[in-house]
Amino acid sequence: MDVQRYISSGIIESYVVGLLPTQEAREVEQAIGLYPEVKAAVEACRQDMERYVQLHAITPPKGIRKRLMEVIENEDSPEGETLLPEELRDPVLEEDAPSAGFKLSIPRERIWQYALVLAVVLLIISLVMNVRYANRHKALKQQHEELISTHNKATADHQSLQSKLQHTEQELLLLKDPAFKWIRLSGNSKHAGQFATICWNPQSKEVYLLAQSLPEPAADQQYQLWAMVNGKPVDAGVFEMGPQRTALQKMKDLAAAQVFFITLEKKGGNASPTPDQLFVSGKVNG
Amino acid sequence: MESDYTYTEAELIQGLKARNQRVFGYLYDHYSPALYGVALKILNDENAAGDTLQEVFLKIWRNIDRYNEEKGRLFTWMLNITRNTAIDMLRSKAHRFEQKIQDVGDDVHLYTGHLAVYQSTDHLGLSKVLEKLNKEQRIIIDLSYYKGCTQEEISTILNIPLGTVKTRTRLAMIKLRNLLKTL
């Protein structure tokens, strides 16, 4: 290395005033160790700089010396330790080089750690709430469905009661109407004890039948009502048994009749009555 | 000065390593004005400079075992601690590059008109030196040494190529040396 040229390049002065980046400063320090001329040049330059610095010397405020002496007198006690700047407390962690910005990195990481923990906690709470609300939703849905079916059943019951009521009211009107004649049909010999009732209005020609105590027929058979009009049997229609037995059933209209009788015929009825199938009969009064 | 005995540098180092508080007091009495001047020049703030000075002397006291005689004299080591501590504080106070330049502008007024504000121990010598240095030389020395500016920053401020910063620095220091000889 051309030491003279190195010395006159300005690198020595730049090193002393602190202009050099870390890498170049390290190279100068190596050169100081290797070349006495470089070492002497650096030392001469430092002394110039230090004389210049001395020109700026100013007496510091009085209190500082007193405070410093107190700190170093008490540095071996825990109280004295607290008077030291944080970085100088035991264990000694002194840092000569400027180090601005280094201290901030750890707390910033901590913030993210805290944020992550918080997010996970919130997620767990949210999941628990979701499951709880889903269960509750299921239970409510079931309750809702039960209520709908109960409501439908109640509506159906109401409708059936309504129609029953209408029917009963109609029957009540017939009972109150003086124009209706009531004819009791009763059985003889083998059908003794069986009876039915006819309700007939000769003016409006309406005929109603109350089947009452007739026995249930076979599935392919049906009872048929007949009227004797001037010695001839006239069909007044077939009627239902089962649940309908206790209700008034409307039959075919008749303008005149002297006798009503009921025979058991094939399903749908016959054109003329089968004589040995006569069950009950009754005369119209007056 | 509380003591009339003069310590050599070797005695100072030995005394500090032996935790001698009288030696520490002597060190403070002899070097605190120079170190406080550096801190004040860097920070431009008496309170911050006072805090820095206190921290610097505690670092010297606690870290004397790290001082390496082969790397330089004790005063050079103390000056470097002072500069680094004060520049750290300057940066922690969020001073920006522009602020550094602003400070230099303020300094120019201080040099010319208000030297009495800083009770310099040798303000006559200082003003003589500063008068003779030109603006470029003063900026190179002061901004690099006192504000921690980089070569790139000096090159930007002076509007000179990066490659010539070192040679201009050398010229400035040679001029300073010659001026100091005349004092």
TrEMBL record, chain A:
GO biological processes: regulation of translation
Domain of life: Bacteria
Domain (Anti-sigma K factor RskA C-terminal) ranges: 117-275
GO CC entries: plasma membrane
InterPro entries: Anti-sigma-K/W_factor (IPR051474), RskA_C (IPR018764)
Single annotated GO MF: sigma factor antagonist activity
Transmembrane segments: 111-131
A Pfam family reported for this protein in Swiss-Prot or TrEMBL: RskA_C
Keywords: Membrane, Transmembrane, Transmembrane helix
The name this protein goes by in its record: Anti-sigma-K factor RskA
UniProtKB/TrEMBL annotation, chain B:
Top-level taxon of the source organism: Bacteria
Keyword terms of this UniProt record: Sigma factor, Transcription, Transcription regulation
InterPro entries per record: RNA_pol_sigma-70-like, RNA_pol_sigma-70_dom, RNA_pol_sigma70_r2, RNA_pol_sigma70_r4_t2, RNA_pol_sigma_r2, RNA_pol_sigma_r3/r4-like, WH-like_DNA-bd_sf
Domain RNA polymerase sigma-70 region: 27-94
One Pfam family cited in the UniProt record for this chain: Sigma70_r4_2
Domain RNA polymerase sigma factor 70 region 4 type: start-end pairs: 126-176
Keyword Transcription regulation attached: yes
Keyword Cell cycle in record: no
Any one GO BP annotation for this protein: DNA-templated transcription initiation
Sample GO molecular function, one term: sigma factor activity
Family indicated by similarity: Belongs to the sigma-70 factor family. ECF subfamily.
NCBIfam families the record matches: sigma70-ECF
Record protein name field: RNA polymerase sigma-70 factor, ECF subfamily
Highest classification ranks of the organism: Bacteria, Pseudomonadati, Bacteroidota, Chitinophagia, Chitinophagales
